[in-house]
Design goal:
single chain; Rossmann fold; 6-stranded parallel sheet; 5 helices; 35% helix; globular; binds flavin mononucleotide
């Protein structure tokens, strides 16, 4: 595989930190180069990658941050049919148990409509929350990062997820 592009948005820095952990995992354990960008300014670089990882927090009781609006507007005009995307949502399953990582679903629905290929669904075992729109057929549509989890668990989940998406 050629390089992977990671694109994130963040309000308080946690999602950026998770993005950097993912980059480290891809590069050190899997020997694949990886670039990371804040979508604030660099979203058009998506063109350069065969596999794109999108990372987002959820805010406002279940909402996708508005920073994505211009990115989706841009992708709307691009042909992304068959292009591979993997999704990762950060959130808090304890405080926001009924809308856990909900925002990720908006990215998923958009990409599905554009016939992009979404890879990297994960099991929801071991997560504690009540409801999430980011479940489809009993699985998360991407990697769920509950920021209440220990760093050790988060790293283990990232490691497993990366190995799976590279295989796919
Ligand atoms: C006002 C507010 C609303 C939030 N709503 C949700 C939510 O609906 N679902 C969820 O999983 N997390 C929710 N969170 C938790 C954030 O998603 C989590 O802290 C975020 O991943 C941090 O990302 P950042 O540091 O990159 O901004 C909320 C946090 C705040 C402060």
């Amino acid at each position: 595989m050629e390089k992977i592009g990671i694109f994130y948005t963040t309000l308080k820095g946690r999602t950026e930190y998770i993005g950097k952990l993912i980059k480290k995992e891809v590069e050190e354990q899997n020997k694949i180069m990886c670039d990371i960008y804040n979508i604030h300014n660099k979203y058009k670089n998506m063109k350069e990658y065969e596999l794109i990882i999108l990372l987002t927090p959820t805010y406002g009781a279940g909402a996708l941050p508005k920073e994505w609006n211009k990115v989706l507007e841009y992708l709307e005009s691009e042909n992304i049919k068959g292009k591979k995307f993997a999704l990762c949502g950060t959130g808090n399953g304890g405080f926001y148990a009924a809308t856990f990582i909900n925002g990720l679903r908006d990215l998923y629905d958009f990409l599905k409509d554009k016939d992009a290929k979404i890879i990297g669904e994960t099991n929801k075992n071991d997560y504690e929350y009540v409801k999430s729109r980011s479940e489809v057929n009993g699985k998360f549509i991407g990697l769920a990062v509950d920021l209440m989890f220990s760093e050790e668990v988060i790293k283990k989940n990232i490691d497993k997820w990366i190995k799976n998406i590279i295989k796919e």
